[in-house]
């Protein structure tokens, strides 16, 4: 019997009707069965301030503990001004401090995002990949820039476009293999 690995899902948007949240929920349905998912919210995090390090807010501790307790992470992000949203960068900053407690280090990570634009969230994902690399996260290879069109999801919230569904299924399978490899090596 194969072990189940807990994957934290971080959506870089606070919007209730976020298309990236909808994409994340659809991706969870496509993932290999040895992965279970838990959404980790960003809404309670204050803006990063080094002055708060000595007595971190409880919301920061809850967030960093939730990330650290995961066997891997799926980050789904919109693109704001050709980069990642401030709320996501803020969460990354909180999780990276202090460096000896960096919750991103050695975490298997899969990244994706969607926007109505033809290039999806290409710039945000490139910046995110760069930041996570500096923090020693292990980001799955490949790129997943998804253009959000009205027919992308069906009424049940599943990926309706066959080519996109196959692409994301294969991408998540590679992520599932990375999780198995890194967690087997660590265990």
List how many beta strands DSSP finds. 6
Strand content: 15-25%
Order of helices and strands: EHEHEHEHEEH
Helical percent range? Answer: 25-40%
> Poorly predicted ranges (pLDDT <50, ≥5 residues)?
none
Count, helices: 5
Structure characterization notes:
The protein is built from five helices and six strands. With 187 residues, it is α/β, with parallel strands linked by helices. Strands 1, 2, 3, 4, 5 and 6 form a six-stranded parallel sheet that branches.
Task: Note the topology.
Blueprint lengths: L4 E7 L7 H12 L4 E5 L18 H11 L3 E5 L9 H11 L11 E8 L6 H13 L3 E2 L5 E3 L14 H25 L1
Parallel strand pairs: 1-2, 1-3, 3-4, 4-5, 4-6
Output the keywords:
187 residues, alpha/beta, 6 strands, 16% strand
Structure, briefly:
By secondary structure, the chain is an alpha/beta fold. It has helices at 19-30, 58-68, 86-96, 122-134, 162-186; strands spanning 5-11, 35-39, 72-76, 108-115, 138-139, 145-147.
